[in-house]
Amino acid sequence: MPPTDGEAERKIIPQAVIKRLSLYSRILQDLELENVEKISSADLGRRLGFNSAQVRKDLACFGQFGVPGFGYYVSDLRKNLRSILGKDRTVRVILIGVGNLGSALISYHGFTKQGFKMMWGFEAQPEAATQRVRSEVPIYHVDELESKIQGESVDIAVLAVPATEIQSIAERVVAAGVKAILNFVPARIEVPEEVQVRYVDLALELESLSYYVR
Amino acid sequence: MPPTDGEAERKIIPQAVIKRLSLYSRILQDLELENVEKISSADLGRRLGFNSAQVRKDLACFGQFGVPGFGYYVSDLRKNLRSILGKDRTVRVILIGVGNLGSALISYHGFTKQGFKMMWGFEAQPEAATQRVRSEVPIYHVDELESKIQGESVDIAVLAVPATEIQSIAERVVAAGVKAILNFVPARIEVPEEVQVRYVDLALELESLSYYVR
DNA sequence: GCAAATTTGTGATTGTTTTCACAAAGGGCG
DNA sequence: CGCCCTTTGTGAAAACAATCACAAATTTGC
Ligand SMILES: NC(=O)c1ccc[n+]([C@@H]2O[C@H](COP(=O)([O-])OP(=O)(O)OC[C@H]3O[C@@H](n4cnc5c(N)ncnc54)[C@H](O)[C@@H]3O)[C@@H](O)[C@H]2O)c1
Ligand SMILES: NC(=O)c1ccc[n+]([C@@H]2O[C@H](COP(=O)([O-])OP(=O)(O)OC[C@H]3O[C@@H](n4cnc5c(N)ncnc54)[C@H](O)[C@@H]3O)[C@@H](O)[C@H]2O)c1
């Protein structure tokens, strides 16, 4: 008998594949609104600039969703992708640091549209922040971080605090049980390796553009 | 005589290399402030989680900057990287759409710190935007886009308008001669292929995190 | 000023991702 | 109902990227 991995049968899927699945999912969302019933891998690829084989290979990581000679049922594939991406339930998000950037993020409706639930904001100066932002998301003092999270589980923490605070805030959200971080602060954070971290680094994007236009 | 490419001797450098060069450049900036004189590829790599050979290979795309048995002179390498990245002159940036997100971007000091110059904001409702934002960057009506750009050249346009407007705005900035776009709007834009486009897609990042925590 | 210790720059190697290409599956039209 | 056409799923090949490993160059310490 070959050694099975037990329940860890799911092989490691590259991040790039997951990002593309998200893109597929969004196209399918649009198609469903337009009442389009089916789509081929070639069409789906064309809309995003990918090769059709790439689309099929990406999907093949998770099973067989297509119908040969026909394509994919939009609604069916969308359902599957949502489930794969963990979006078949509400994904709970918090924001730490409701300053200039955080104020925009906390009231961003693109979140909700994609099925995320922005639970709370946390701030060193919650009064000033509450005044600044017009949004239904409650903003608490950062001291309440641990007690709030304890009550209800949180999936993802979005960080937009000053660079000096980032490591200590990261440690606090991790200690409180958060397993994924989206970091807008241009500084590397040290966290246990089971915690997923994504960096959004604006200046980096600008610099790479700067290279190509100089 | 082998066919030379004329002045197009510069081979195509992958985007990933350029991003890493930016990261190196930022580390070197910090080191210079700390008056560190030299650094090895191994040290530089360690600070970013890269292999030392990767660092050397990346740099080798552009020349020989190191001293065997010694390492790299911080200030020297930094100067070279800035020049490679096109940062040895002011890089001129404009922002279109000074709403929730744009308001944060227009007054972001991380820009300036990395040598970018935010020239102007353009808005459909410039009065409201000016009121909202406390920043020295002037905000004009979007109708003035073409005439302003005509006078002084612009390197990069940052787009943060509603999704419905994105294609038309993209076409206008391209027609006005802008060669690089940083797009925060989650919608693909059609532009001539010589125009460089980067997408910053927040919901995509959240979704990929969502997969790993589900 | 010489030998030992470093560290670069780079060809070779390994690993990963994308693309190709085609057999097999299924739908649709006559 | 059956044949033809389309499109999937997937091994094989190609392209691309990261890592290894080592000769060559240079510093450092004695
Ligand atoms: N503004 C932008 O467009 C932008 C773009 C990219 C990245 N960033 C990064 O995002 C971060 C925030 O930028 P910003 O422009 O919003 O700055 P900001 O100063 O406006 O916002 C920071 C907020 O964090 C709060 N804060 C400080 N310490 C805190 C703590 N310990 N816990 C909770 N809240 C705390 C402050 O009160 C403030 O409201 C920075 O690290 C910046 O580099 C900003
Ligand atoms: N708010 C966020 O945190 C966030 C995050 C990621 C992406 N985005 C994207 O960024 C874009 C802007 O988001 P937002 O939250 O700032 O929305 P917003 O409505 O607050 O801002 C859009 C601004 O663009 C202006 N505008 C409209 N048409 C224009 C035109 N033709 N020319 C110039 N300006 C015009 C509006 O007056 C408004 O001020 C959206 O596409 C959104 O999906 C926003």
Description:
The structure is a homodimer of 214-residue chains. The termini of chain A are far apart. Chain A contains ten helices and eight strands. Chain A has helices spanning 15-33, 41-48, 52-60, 74-84, 100-106, 109-113, 126-132, 145-151, 166-175, 202-213; strands at 38-39, 72-73, 91-96, 116-123, 139-141, 156-159, 180-183, 196-199. Chain A folds into two domains: 7-83, Arc Repressor Mutant, subunit A (Orthogonal Bundle), CATH 1.10.10; 91-205, NAD(P)-binding Rossmann-like Domain (Rossmann fold, 3-Layer(aba) Sandwich). In chain A, the strands form two sheets. The first copy, chain A, has a six-stranded parallel sheet with strand order 5-4-3-6-7-8, with helices on both faces. In chain A, strands 1-2 form a two-stranded antiparallel sheet. Mean pLDDT of chain A is 93; it is low at 1-9. In chain A, 44% of the residues lie in helices and 15% in strands. Chain A has 214 residues and is an alpha/beta fold. Chains A and B meet through helix 1, helix 5, helix 6, strand 7 and helix 10 of A and helix 1, helix 5, helix 6, strand 7 and helix 10 of B. The complex binds nicotinamide-adenine-dinucleotide (NAD) (2 copies). One nicotinamide-adenine-dinucleotide sits between chains B (96-102, 122-125, 129, 142, 160-163, 165, 169, 184-186, 202) and A (104-105, 108, 110). The structure holds a DNA duplex (30 and 30 nucleotides).
